[in-house]
Design brief:
Length: 187
């Protein structure tokens, strides 16, 4: 014969409802996939789609889209400047990427080392992360204003007596590359 305690525990086990938590993983993944589809996948597909068309302007009139098939790709791969384009891209990537990774690792090791007992860690972490919050177009306009012929960088260099005429950072290939590398490094 079963005791009343055993009977009540058996009833409690039968009434206990099994809760399935596996669906919550999908719920928490949903924002990522929605954002990825809207901001990455759809623009990628539309870029590939529009690469098969030709658009141009004649004065204020927009002419196109005209379907050209693979003609855009043929003209790209037959262009004598293709290796120049690829070389510029690789140069900007390597010169901007390698120092960025090295300094990021150095700063991460520095700020997580408890033996250093650094003060103001929150301030420095905020300052280091700040360029990620600024849009690339605003960052480019800031650099354009800073490094223009009459900008504060040239004004400071002239005031310190380091140069006598403004440096035309934005008029030379090396100056423009250097600024782009520096912007990519900071962002």
């Amino acid at each position: 014969m079963k005791t009343p305690a055993k009977v009540s525990s058996g009833i409690a086990r039968k009434k206990q409802k099994h809760i399935n938590y596996s669906k919550w993983g999908y719920v928490f993944l949903l924002p990522f996939f929605i954002t990825f589809i809207i901001f990455q996948l759809i623009p990628l597909i539309s870029t590939i789609y529009y690469s098969f068309f030709k658009y141009f302007r004649s004065g204020l009139k927009i002419i196109g889209p005209i379907f050209v098939g693979f003609d855009n790709y043929k003209s790209l791969f037959h262009s004598p400047d293709l290796f120049n384009y690829m070389g510029n891209t690789m140069l900007l990537w390597i010169v901007g990427f390698i120092p960025q990774i090295l300094i990021s690792l150095l700063l991460a090791a520095w700020f997580t080392n408890t033996r250093l007992r650094l003060r103001g860690l929150r301030f420095f972490k905020t300052v280091i992360y700040m360029p990620n919050l600024i849009m690339a177009s605003a960052f480019a306009m800031l650099f354009f204003a800073l490094f223009s012929d009459n900008g504060p960088v040239n004004g400071s260099l002239i005031a310190m007596g380091l140069i006598h005429q403004p440096v035309r950072f934005l008029s030379t290939v090396s100056g423009t590359r250097g600024l782009i590398i520096f912007m990519n490094f900071l962002m």
